[in-house]
Specification:
Layout: E1 2-9, E2 18-22, E3 32-33, E4 40-46, E5 62-71, E6 79-91, H1 101-111, E7 146-149, H2 176-181, E8 183-186, E9 189-193, H3 196-206, E10 216-220, E11 231-234, E12 251-257, H4 275-284, E13 289-300
């Protein structure tokens, strides 16, 4: 099996603006500075033998986000990015009965920055996660067990409407027929897409004993942000029992965190962290605003 990999990394910017800084889970006492340049590469890579990796990590198309934390140095202009690491997500398989083609295509197109040369807002690079006491996992009752990115409100796809008109790039879209086919009742409401219990069962059976959690990638279906660039990372299995699937209401599950995925940032070698470590570090930090500084897709062929 070969994979098609598309990597996009935030360009180096003049010293007066963003500087990339490398650290391990925001805990290393020493920090090394290095600049990044734009790299866009496509290559075929042979996967390891099946005995060397779990089946779970090999059978899905993937999307990744390189996460940094934006800080404001004292008495200095511009900002600094502390590199947290990479989050890998497994996407709903195309042949799955709850696959949502429009929503996943939009997410992938923006992560791949396919239209960025034409429209600089047609990407997730530079987008920030909401940051407030409700998004910091500090053990308090305020934490909401999810992390939301609004994006630039520019879509990566256009959709043909029943009237024959095609949506603008900045216009919300919907997929009502597919949504009806993958609606799940939950706590008096509905959520859509891949079922939480199916993902949870997959993780418990196929992870091979490693630490894991059902952390889901979702997009809004109803309400603010529906049919736009907005997405959320929802820590369903790690939330208190009274939260659980309630966190998914009015949204669609389009993937889940590949917990053992290499959490090394950008082109760094594997430093022992995985995607689950990176997410937990991002959730607990209080330094600054989590920011997507690189993103891409990895497609099975």
């Amino acid at each position: 099996m070969s994979r098609f990999i598309l990597r996009i990394i935030l360009p180096a910017i003049a010293a007066a603006s963003i500087i990339h800084t490398s650290c391990v889970a925001l805990l290393l006492p020493s920090i090394s500075l290095r600049s990044k340049r734009v790299t866009l590469s496509a290559q075929s890579v042979q996967s390891p033998n099946a005995s060397e990796v779990s089946t779970l990590s090999c059978q899905y198309d993937k999307i990744y986000f390189d996460i940094g934390v934006k800080t404001q140095p004292n008495n200095k202009s511009g900002s600094t990015i502390l590199n947290v690491g990479r989050l890998w997500f497994n996407l709903t398989p195309v042949n799955h009965p709850h696959y949502l083609p429009l929503h996943i295509s939009n997410l992938c197109s923006l992560a791949a920055s396919k239209r960025k040369a034409i429209d600089p807002k047609a990407t997730y690079i530079g987008c920030t996660f909401q940051f407030s006491p409700a998004t910091i996992d500090d053990g308090s009752f305020r934490y909401r067990w999810g992390h939301q990115v609004d994006g630039y409100r520019r879509n990566g796809i256009q959709v043909s409407l029943a009237s024959g008109r095609v949506t603008d790039w900045g216009e919300p879209f919907s997929d009502p027929e597919r949504i009806k086919e993958c609606a799940h009742d939950s706590f008096g409401g509905k959520y859509y897409g891949w079922r939480y219990d199916e993902i949870s069962n997959l993780l418990s059976v196929e992870e091979g004993g490693g630490e894991t959690a059902a952390i889901l990638l979702t997009v809004p279906i109803h309400g603010p942000g529906a049919g736009t660039s907005q997405f959320s990372i929802v820590r369903v299995s790690e939330s208190p029992r009274e939260w659980g699937e309630r966190l998914l209401l009015n949204s669609a599950v389009v993937g889940f965190l590949d917990c053992p995925g290499n959490g090394g940032f950008g082109d760094d070698t594997n430093d022992g962290r995985n995607s689950l470590d990176v997410l937990r570090a991002m959730a607990k930090q209080k330094i600054g605003v989590p920011t997507i500084v690189g993103c891409g897709i990895e497609m099975n062929e």
